[in-house]
Amino acid sequence: MAQADVVIGKKNDGDGMRWFSWLTSSAANTLVDPVSGRKLYPIDGGIAFPDYHKQETADIPIRNVAMPSHYIVPLRVNPRFTARPIVDIGARVRKGEKIGEPEGKFGVAVHAPTSGVIRDLGHYPMTHVSGLPALAYFIEPDGKDEAIEPTPYRGACDDTDRIRDFLQQMGLAGLGGAAFPSHAKVASSPVKTLIINGAECEPWITCDDRLMREHAAEIVAGACDLAAAVHALEVLIGIEDNKPQAIAAMQAAAANHGAVTVVAIPTIYPAGGEKQLIERLTGIEVPYGHLSAEFGVLVFNVGTARAVHRALTYGEPLLERVVTLTGAADDPGNRWVRIGHPIAELILEMAPKPEVDRYLLGGPMTGFAIPDLDAPILKGSNCIIAASPALFPPPPPEQPCIRCGACAPVCPARLEPMALYWFARAQQFGKAQEFHLFDCIECGCCAYVCPAHIPLVDYYRYAKSEIWEREREKSKAQQSKARFEFRNYRLEREKAEKAARAAAKAAETKRRLEAQAQESHAEASANGTNDRDGAASPSAPNANDAAARKKALVEAALARARAKRAAEATEPSGENRE
Amino acid sequence: MITAPYWRAPVSVTRVMGWVLLALIPAIVLHVIFFGPVLLAQLLLASVAAVVVEALLLWVRRRPIVSAVTDLSAVVTAWLLVLALPTTVPWWLTLLGVVIAIGVAKQLYGGIGQNPFNPAMVAFAALIVSFPAELSRWPLPTTPVAWQWASFLGTPNVDALASATVLDTLRTAVHSGQAVSELLGRSPVFGTLSGAGYEWIAVAFLAGGLLLWLRGIIPGRLPFAFLLTLGVLSTLAWLVAPERFAPPWVHLFAYSTMLAAFFIITDPVSGVVTPRGQWVFAAGAALLVFLIRHFGQFPDGVAFAVLLMNLAAPWIEMKTQPRVFGEDHP
User: Fold this and answer.
1) How far apart are CA A142 and CA A116, in angstroms?
2) How far is CA A91 from CA A102, A121, A139, A186, A569, in A?
3) Using N-to-C axis directions, what is the helix angle for A160-169 and A302-314, rounded to 10°?
């Protein structure tokens, strides 16, 4: 109920309207894409917005931006995707030069965006909701933009391991938003379907749309490269049907590639969510905590596909991406922006209007207000919206939930958002988990339609972070408990060993004394100088040796356990969204 | 709000409640045409009383008053209560009903969204238990308006000008051994399909309900399952024993049936939100309505049926959770 006056798609129209449209136009409901003739699978929930605000930027060609005064190139944006600094402060670097060495399984290399001098290595503000700073290089450009000699990929096109390592060294990460390391997806597990995500379902954002219109051939080439690398049988390029020019361009580019199919999917947010796109195209539901690869599906963003092609063919590391600059601005549009470009300088490019009160990173449904504009553009930064009170009015005050249930039919995960809200509010986190809190993808559809204006997603984020915090506390407590128990065990054992040693010693002394007595008794005063130490020494060091050996073994075991735990802590949870 | 989404659909509780009130207008208009303007006085009295009681209790509870009063939910409750009662009830009885509905059933439980029972039905149940005589004086289309006014003001002089509902008349007759067929069409309470005059108001409820359905305010499955279940049960009973059970159309086009189907069981607060649960809720309510109408002690079963289902609602909801995305994947 309650979507009364919103002109929205058949999914979240009233029940009645849905039936009405089904009766009047059954063709609109047949789930076959008219572009490719492929069967499409139904997805749940979602919202068709009355205005997508894509027209502001979609028809303007991508432009370059002026060189900024400095670049802030981060090494550790995400605790899982880190790189180790390998260039000293004061060093001169050239464009494309590697300045960060990937760390661990998920780390990706970091490269200098232009030629210049490294002025600092320190913590700088990042575009993260928390506003927490991260380790980054501060690079002062010299204006020459000199590049290093590129080193294209020379191996076989289906050598999965070599391509994986190459992509890691080229700094490839998902350009869809989550910046998941691309090489980590290129694994040797069998992949049937490779999906290239060109849905771009969130309002305002047009960077993928522009890229598909202008660089369709490179995207298709990248898709083919990736398909060869993971031995995929088919490539599906999913694009929402509100981008007809992009679809046409991609179709033309894919015309000569038999395995590549461009599929137009219905425009309904969040159809471009990784899980939703997979469901729409293949009917597979990838559950929470599982990777799509387990189901034989891999998803890459269109921008990532192009970057993969540029890296393999031309040896270009991932240095730049397309960023949509839009909102209350006089010169909106898409721009080629290098990673590390300070946002404060980038926003001037779109000539923001005076009424702008904040800048959003990402779209209005899942983005966030940038806490510190000194932060740089990252690999996942797809859009900056100059937000004004007119475009994004402050929400009406939160009212009590009337259990109207409007939130449930729009949920793409088929959750009961209302129940989750009650549990989060009542701090019944166990119940919230029982009702699948962690299946929530935080798309914001429920909060969008709520007539009581409840910031539902905020409640879910709160509940999730509380649960994580408790889990951390619990594991910490468990570790301390284990440590304490081991200490008790060690003390007990040492006490027992000490007692045993003392008993042995006592027995030995007793035996010796008896022997001595016997000797003295037998040999009388013949040989009074019995070697006391000689009799005692072989046994005492032996006991000490055994204890030391045991201690060393235990310590080694503890160290192993610690290392294992540390490794587990840095392992990924296996969840990613593009 | 500091985090996403930064966009919201132009919806509000006030708008939802406004649509419900709008959907009741056709029935009210027909009611006034058939029975005169007393209903309007009742509606006005109840609306004002509901808002005053709500504001008073919010003030006592130190809760925001303006947003709660302007959401129109109290007015919806007041209108539904008035429409559930005969228009001839004295003013103080309406007032008492509003106090019970808003004061006890709604605010004592914590205000909007917190009440486990449908407030209008709680008030109706309390009144029918306490004042059965007043609540069985339904005006006929022939009842003079002056008499209705007198009754409203608390001074009814002639008692025989109003009567029981169709269902009540039938039940009493069957209990006293008369056959249904002897009664149908012979008493002035009967119209073409069901109650004289009331059957057309029931049709107006149906029309208003369809409007709410088309606007997406109520889910279609609730009234559908309710009417379907009641229709099937009454048809079966009628086919088996036509002398004891009224034909299905008498049940379906009874005033209380249509009011319940589109405006009472669709109350989201005290109802069920899971799709499968809504089928169970509505079908269960219809079954209880059928049983109470035929085998109970009260003239109509809607209030008690709805309250009983309200009791079961949390359990139904728990047992009918939908399969979440990716759950039980092959």
Assistant:
1) 5
2) 20, 11, 10, 34, 34
3) 100
The rounded mean pLDDT for chain B is 88
Calculate the CA dihedral of residues A577, B4, B9, B14 and round it to 10 degrees.
130
Contacts of A389 (CB under 8 A, 6+ apart): A355, A357
Contact status, residue A360 vs residue A370, Cβ threshold 8 Å: yes
Residues of A in contact with B310 (CB under 8 A): none
3-state secondary structure of A439: helix
Residue environment code for A363-378, b if the CB has 16+ CB neighbours within 10 A, otherwise e: bbbbbbbbbebebbbb
Describe the strand order of the beta sheet including A297-301 as a list of residue ranges. A260-265, A234-240, A193-197, A297-301
Compute the nearest-CA separation of A369 from chain B (Å).
7
In angstroms, the separation between the Cα of residue A76 and the nearest Cα of chain B is 24
Q: Which helix (H) or strand (E) holds A300?
A: strand A297-301
Q: What percent of chain B is predicted at pLDDT more than 70?
A: 94
Neighbours of A475 (CB within 10 A): 13
CB nearest B217 (choices: A2, A362, A452): A2
Domain boundaries, chain A: 33-321, 395-523
Residue B216 forms contact with A (CB below 8 Å): yes
pLDDT tens per residue, range A107-145: 899 999 999 999 999 999 888 766 678 899 999 999 888
Please state the CATH superfamily assignment of the domain spanning residues A33-321 in this structure. Answer: NADH-ubiquinone oxidoreductase 51kDa subunit (3.40.50.11540)
B-chain CB neighbours of A49 within 8 Å are 7
Indicate if ipTM > 0.90. Answer: no
**Contact assessment for residue B207 and residue B261, using Cβ atoms and an 8 Å cutoff:** no
| List of chain B residues whose C-beta atoms are within 8 Å of the C-beta of residue A403 | 113, 268-269, 271, 273
Q: Are A41 and A283 in contact (CB under 8 A)?
A: yes
Residue A368 and residue B113: Cβ atoms within 8 Å?
no
Alpha carbons within 13 angstroms on the beta-carbon side of residue A146 total 9
CB-nearest to B220 from A8, A16, A203 is: A16
Residue B26 to residues A552, B29, B32, B33: CA-CA distances in angstroms?
A: 89, 5, 10, 11
Among B69, B1, B8, which residue's Cα sits nearest to residue A5? B8
**What's the CA gap between A563 and A58, in Å, rounded?**
51
Task: Spell out which residues of chain B touch residue A365, defining contact as CB-CB under 8 Å.
Answer: 4-7
Residue A386 bridge partners (DSSP): A327, A359
3-state SS, residue A269? strand
Residue B186 CB neighbour total at 10 angstroms: 9
Decide if A451 and B269 are in contact by the 8 Å CB cutoff.
no
CATH number for the domain running over A395-523: 1.10.1060
Which of B1, B2, B8, B274 is most worth mutating to test chain A (most A CB atoms within 10 A of its CB)? Answer: B8
Q: How far is A21 from chain B (nearest CA, A)?
A: 11
Two domains, one topology: A33-321 and A395-523: no
Cβ-contact A466, A427 below 8 angstroms: yes
The residue whose two tokens read 């979609």 is A58
- C-alpha to C-alpha distance for A365 and A344, rounded to whole angstroms: 23
Q: What is the DSSP letter of A95?
A: B
Type of residue numbered B15:
R
pTM of the shown model: 0.80
Cβ contact, residue pair B268, A387, below 8 Å: no
Window 112-171 of B: residues touching A by CB (8 A cutoff) are: 112-114
For residue A531, what pLDDT band results from cuts at 50, 70 and 90?
very low
pLDDT digits (tens, 9 = 90+) for A339-369: 999 999 999 999 999 999 999 999 999 988 8
Q: B181: which DSSP letter? A: H
